[in-house]
Write a structure and sequence with these properties.
7-stranded mixed β-sheet, about 350 residues, about 40% helix, 3-stranded antiparallel β-sheet, alpha+beta, binds phenylalanine
């Protein structure tokens, strides 16, 4: 009898473990514990067993019943869990959902492109502080004390104790402050490209209070206007296209003499004149030969060394590039994804 019980138990356990569904498990349960189940039948036979053996067999049979019940319930839980996992299984041949992939901001892309164009002809990219002293942004650049650029309406000032020598603290309104930072290091010759954020109190369709400029500065012996002209033409052709040319026009800046405004031939009519440009040229930005007073402020001998500088807006050249039509510059900084995704 005992042996019979043991074989029933082993048989039941292995059948339970083999079940693949709750339904199958249900059938096993009936097979062993149902009204005509194997265990039930055994228990019914107990009265036929001798009085001495009856309690022992009875308790083994009951224990067996419990073991089988427990095995069934454990298996049930496992099967139900497996069912959840099965329902999560997926078709590997189905096309997946692409994670959204961002890209660099158009202004960052332009900065990288400009950097690569100038580094190819030996310029070194540098960065100087956005928060500057008056000395670097104005005084050393030959601005008289009463120059309107210092006015609150042009420049953002920071409420901080002015430095005795370097003056008030401000957000630099142009990258030309980098010219002074570079020259005061006293290492010549210089071939610098300073690209940085600049700040002015302005906000309209063609101005944002924060914008970027890229500033070139070359200082050495025998640097002439022709070097400036050659560099400009190289940039214009590399950035805007082989069919574009630049021209220089007399202008005035405090820190360059002579000073120029640089134009590029219009991309639509290639210099002939059209509705967009009127006379064939578009204004790019300022440039000039470094003023002797600026060299002197940086302890460089103007009799021995000369240099040229240029400073243009990154957003401006980006807008002027063929095929890019932005009618309000402020959209560049409004985090409008529909706009940004196009670049
Ligand atoms: N700093 C001038 C501006 O912001 C541009 C400039 C740079 C002009 C270098 C001459 C030389 O308008």
């Amino acid at each position: 009898m005992e042996e019979k019980l043991l074989s029933i138990k082993n048989n039941a356990i292995s059948l339970i473990l083999e079940t693949k569904s709750v339904k199958e498990l249900e059938e096993i349960k009936i097979q062993f514990l149902g009204r005509n189940g194997e265990i039930t039948k055994l228990l019914k036979e107990l009265p036929k067993i001798s009085k001495e053996e009856r309690p022992k067999i009875g308790s083994i049979a009951n224990g067996l019943k419990n073991i089988i019940e427990e095995a069934i319930s454990t298996r049930e839980t496992t099967l139900k869990k497996t069912k959840v996992i099965t329902s999560r299984s997926f078709d590997v041949t189905e096309p997946g959902i692409r994670p959204a992939l961002g890209h660099l901001h158009p202004v960052t892309q332009a900065i990288r492109e400009i950097t690569s164009i100038f580094t190819q002809i030996g310029f070194t990219r540098v960065r100087y502080p956005e928060i500057e002293w008056d000395w670097y942004a104005f005084t050393a650049l030959n601005f008289p004390q009463n120059h309107p650029a210092r006015d609150d309406w042009e420049t953002f000032f920071i409420k901080q104790q002015p430095d005795e020598k370097k003056g008030t603290v401000l957000l630099t309104p142009h990258t030309s402050s980098g010219q002074i930072r570079e020259m005061e290091k006293g290492e010549l010759p210089i071939k610098m490209l300073n690209i940085a954020k600049t700040y002015r109190r302005q906000s309209d369709v063609s101005h944002t209070p924060m914008f970027h400029q890229f500033e070139g500065l070359v200082v050495g012996e025998n640097i002439a206007i022709s070097d400036l002209k050659g560099t400009l033409n190289y940039f214009v052709k590399s950035y805007f296209g082989e069919n574009r040319i630049s021209r220089i026009r007399p202008y005035h800046f405090q820190f360059t003499e002579p000073s120029f405004e640089i134009d590029i031939s219009c991309g639509v009519c290639l210099g002939k004149g059209c509705r967009l440009c009127k006379e064939g040229w578009l204004e790019l930005g300022g440039a000039g030969m470094v003023h002797p007073n600026v060299l002197k402020a940086c302890h460089i001998d103007p009799e021995k060394y000369t240099g040229f500088a240029f400073g243009w807006g990154v957003e401006r050249v980006l807008m002027m590039k063929d095929g890019i039509k932005i009618d309000d510059l402020r959209i560049l900084y409004s985090n409008d994804l529909d706009f940004l995704k196009q670049f």
